[in-house]
Each structure stands twice: as C-alpha cells, then as structure tokens.
Amino acid sequence: MNNLNNIQMNTNEADIEKVLSRGIEALFPNKDFLKSKMIKGERLTLYLGVDPTGPTLHLGHAIPLKKLGEFQKLGHQIILLIGDFTAMIGDPSDKTAARKKLTRDQVLENCKEYKKQVSPFISFEGSNPALLKFNSEWLSKMNFGDVLELASLMTVDQMLKRDMFARRIEEGRPIYIHEFMYPLMQGYDSVAMNVDGEIGGNDQTFNMLTGRDLIKTLKGKEKFVVTTKLLTDSSGKKMGKTEGNMVSLNQSPEDIFGKIMSWSDELILPGLEIATSIPNEDIESIKKMLESGSNPKDYKMILAKEIVTMIHGADSAEVAQKSFENTFSKGEIPEDIKEIEASSGSLLRDLLVKGGIVSSNADWKRLVEGNAISFLEKDETVSDILIKIEKDCTVRVGKKRFAKIKIK
User: pTM score, two decimals?
Assistant: First the structure.
C-alpha cells in the first residue's frame, strides 16, 4: 500500500498556473474552481481515458498524457483508464460514419503495449504511482435495467446538439443507437471511479461533460474537466491514425524526427506549446524570429528534437538529429521525399513503377542489373528483380531519386 502521508503536494501558485494554462483549451466549471483546490493542497483524483482502437498510441495521446503527468508531479492521484469495453463500441466523436466494431480479442491485443508506451509521460512506480484501470470492470456488469436507468438521464435533444451528429443528419448519413450510448458509457466511468476530474483532448469535451453531468446527478459531486488543445495539420484535421499523419509512440527516434521535419511550418509554434516543455519565453522568442524571416527549418529541428527527447530520451534524440542531418540536410535525400504506402509482401518493382519513381518494368530490370537501386537503412544494393518489401524502408534509385516505403 502507498503511504499517502509521504506524498508531498506542490501548492506553488506559479507551478499550478502553468499546469492550468499551457496547452489548455478550456477548464470546467472554470479555472478558479480547480486552482483554488490545488492551492489549498487538496489531493485530487483525475484520469485520462484511452480506447484501444489500434495497437499504438500516438502524439495526439501524448499531449493529454503529458498534462496528466504534470498533475502527478504536483502530488495528485492519476489514473490511466483503458476503455476496453467502450473500444468495442467506438467513439463517434468527429466521425462522419459509424466506427467499425471491434471484438474483445482485438481490443485486448491492441492495448498490450500501452503501459510501456505511456511510461515516458506518467509513472506507475514511486511514492505516488499512477493507477491502471479497465472500464469493462463495471460496464460489462451492467444489465439492461441499469442501462435504461442511465439512459433516462440524458435526452435525444442533448445528443443531437453534437456537431458530428448534426452533420450526419444534414448529409443523410445514419446515426446508430449504440453511438448515442457511447457518451453515457464514457460518462459513467467518472461515476464508477468516483473521480474529482478528467483530462482529454478538446474533441472529447462532450463525452467528458456528460460524465460531469452524471456524477453531479448521481453523486452530487462537482467534477472538473480539463480539455487540452489539439495539434492539427494545415487542413484543420487532428493528428491521428484516422487521418494518416500521426507520429506513433512506438516509432523509432529517427522515424519520429523525420516525420516531424515533414510537417508544415505552421505547426512549429503550436507544436512547441502543447507537445514540449520549452519555456514560454523561448517560444515567444522563436515566434519573433519566424516573423522576422528566420529559416523555419531551424526551429522545426528544435521541435523534432524536443519531441523525440520526450518519447525516447535525450541521447536518442541526439542520434536522430545527427542521422537526419547526415541524410537530409547534406543533400543525400530531399526533405519532400515521396512516400508510398504498401502492404507487407508487395513487390518493390510494382511499388516504384506505380509511384512513378521507375518508368516501367523494363527500366526497373535495367536499374537492378546496373546495381542502381539500394536500401539506405542497410546500405544494401538490390539484386533480386522480384524482391518483396516486408517492413518500412528508404530506397535510392540512381543518384537523385528516392522513395520511402511505409507498410500499412
């Protein structure tokens, strides 16, 4: 058992203000409500819920995880909740169509590495360890009467106010009853764990506020909600696996560094604010330098190194930066290298011909016979015209043509 008397609560107002301001989209009911509790030294219990809809967490998860870790460092009790039950239903947030339902076996397989992936952000050891919970513990035990009782606490009108449901109605797309149930299930997590608060990205605001309403109705408790800003690309889409632009937490330092360097320049400042711990005054200085015409690439390098450091550590970030400089910055590989998605076992010939890197099958054969095609990672020349690709790789064709093969 953890001895709560050994936990030192940090009640420094400046430290608390930083946690409640940086990278925050909104606070419910308001900042003063939460700040006053923290300054008084109240030890709060708060959680972040993650549905295991895929085998890896990504940078979009890292942002609220980082914020959760900041609360832990102040002395508060944090919980990482794995939505092993809710993942089988699927969160409809920001979706134009219903999610594909997952089996329990798929869900459990997806979350096998989650504890390891979150370890750079929160700690499950020490005097104030994070707790790991699964919402099947209570949701799977509910009977139909329990569900009807819970459903009676929310109206259809409340659900239809959600933007994505309104868009689906406008576009003539179906809305399924089980999607209406999802916010209730996620909201009930707060009741079951009897928490003080919840953290999540601002795309989860509706779901988290549903929990706030439920715990107030069922337990008379005022739950706080902390919503973090989202890192979005130039089209306004959030970084995530659905959009195909995510940085996965299990990727190598070199891959993460290179991926961030491929981001648009407009992501530099928001990325520094919400995905790093660089002081605010330094970010303000970078902003002024960018406005004065400084090369954005220099500051994107800072962003990439900081994020790799956060996930893999400083030594790995140093190696990743040097690797990037030795390949991209010195002209060996262009920064806008063409990426080709492929299934494992695809013929490299077909990928490069279809991708326009090689003009034809005959051209491919000529290049292979002339030892003009190689894998950069292994410094290996391709000699087999029917070689298949089993994992991610970077291919050089001749002296100036390159392709990055990404296995789906």
Answer: 0.78
